[in-house]
Design goal:
Largest sheet: 6 strands, antiparallel
Number of helices: 3
Number of domains: 5
Number of strands: 58
Radius of gyration: 42 Å
Length: 698
Amino acid sequence: MHYSINFNHLERKVMKFKKLWLYILTPLLVLLGSAVLTNTVQAKELQHVITNVQMWDVDNGGVKKPNADGTYELTMNNDYPNYKYMVDFDLSNYNGKLEEGDTFTFTIPAPLTVENKTFDITDKSTGVAVASANVVSSGKNAGGKVTMTLQNLKAYLAKKGGTQVNDVSGTFYTGFSIRQDTSKTTITYPTTETKDKITHVIKSKKPSTPDYGNEVGVTNFAKVNGIITKEHWESKLLNKSGEYHHPFIIRVNDRQASYNTLEIHDSILEDGYSPAQFVPESLEIKYGYYDKRYSFHDEKPMKEGVDYTVEWNDSYTDFKIKISNASSKKASNGKPASFRITYKTTAPGDGTKIGNSAEVKGDDVPLSSRTDETKTKLIVSRNSQITDGGTIQLKTGYRITLYKVDEKTLDRLVGAKFKITPPSGATATEETVTTNADGVAQSSVYSEDDVKKGNFTVTEIEAPKGYELDSTPFEVTVGKDGVIKTVKNKRTSAKAQLSAIKKLTGRAMKAGEFEFDLFDDKTNKVVETVTNDQDGNIKFTELSFDQEGEYTYHIVEKKANTTEKGVTYDANPVGVTVTVTADSEGKLAAAVSYESDDKTFENTYAAEKTSASLEVTKKLTGRELKADEFEFVLKNDADGSELQKVKNTADGKVTFAPIEYTKAGTYNYTIVETNAGKTVDGVTYDNLEVKVKVEVTD
């Protein structure tokens, strides 16, 4: 059973209206007062207060619709209440006469079955149980009765500072099932309870055994389930938790075709829907095959990073999965496997809807959802309406509903102000609305005539604290179901530039000669790699911060603690801390500090010793050459000095001793033969001068 309550109080002492709101359960109960609560007025039963009765299909998560002839065809169920009544009530005829202990009833007729149930309805802001619900079964196939009782109104008003209450309207839910074979039957609700006569024509049907054999054979992919479910969840990646979620299933390759790669793209829709996010930790992929009842057989888990990859966007509203070598996964029926992707999304749980889309590629080609259709994108929407528990449900018809969220985290934001301008000729006037603690702002309810006159213009005029204002106007079209718009805000940010200094001793430094990595201490991943300029300045791209806190980094020189080409590299990293603070208006400022106030890398250069051996060849014509027969001189061209004298070997090799170098540069030499140009003992000596250049580099 589900219920909501909302109080407005009239403060007579100050001679003006003061509104106080109490939200308990879905969707709305309002008390606005003119009668002082006392203990002397006797509680009474309120009659003719039920204004509408609808049926909610629990298994399909929506309002049950009748057949073309107006008959509600209900599936028999002996295990649990697979339907709920949605009961609207209005106590305004009792204005000025409402008291604690007042009750009203709703009778569930035979042949329906209900279960006994009682619970309190508690205002979460005060902790006061302001109403109680008591469901009493009349037996199997015999219906039952719901009694709603107002209670503890004085205690609630005392905590809120009010004294008087009035005007009550709202909706509650109570479960039922049909357990017997029932032909077309008209059920009527007691006219003492209803404002007008309300009847339903119902009949029952037995659960059928489905046969989806033909559908399985033509389906490439499908998205199913998504009905809001009560189950606690937590997500470290979202930094959120909740009690409700939407569990979705994507079936891929139902027909078991052969693909090398399969790519699945899934997105949560924004326009016209409430904000939601994937719960990334809940994502699972299994492979197997589907039978004609769509049961998944012989399922086996797949491992991320081995069997598939997944990419998320920053706000976890979009993911892309790639299954490589898909055809290598064989189902136990011998065919290429089908795949079953399951995940949860967050649930607004406020009576609105979430939207979701899916696309699939096989071997880089977009697939239609079925082979006999051309549609390549599936879009589904699900009611995010809680029909038990304790959260407010929004009324969205003929009005504008605005959600204000953080652009990255999708956290709801309080305090955003919007100006709403009606179209020309409308009787509605311009108004300003402000997002509440749930990040929601709603316009007034407009008349049908006003919404037909054109689009409404919405302009953000004040951003939430700590966020940037986006004053760009946008237009919305309001219809019978209203319009929902999610508006994202970017956090205000502070920028900080990290830098360091490079010093080189022993020679001049060159621009771009040394590389430096900036590491984020939190992830130990490289943020950016830069090089020095000619003067040794090291500058990284500005970092942007949108939250208060302390952020730490370290700068490391590539090749740290090594020696290469005469350069000995600094072994020590430079530690950096960025402290981000906010002022009273939420404006951020960033301050940079360096560990030990030192941000200098000091390298030294010392040329490494190297050597070169010079060699020429001696040839003698007319007789055989003898070892040590001829002498050769090596001269330094820089000063003409004689460096070495050597003699030839028997095979004519003339090799000088290695010359050692300790400095880069160009060195020129000349090799000449002793007695060059002379004739001695019948041997005419060559007067050739051999010029030699030696280049020494770092």
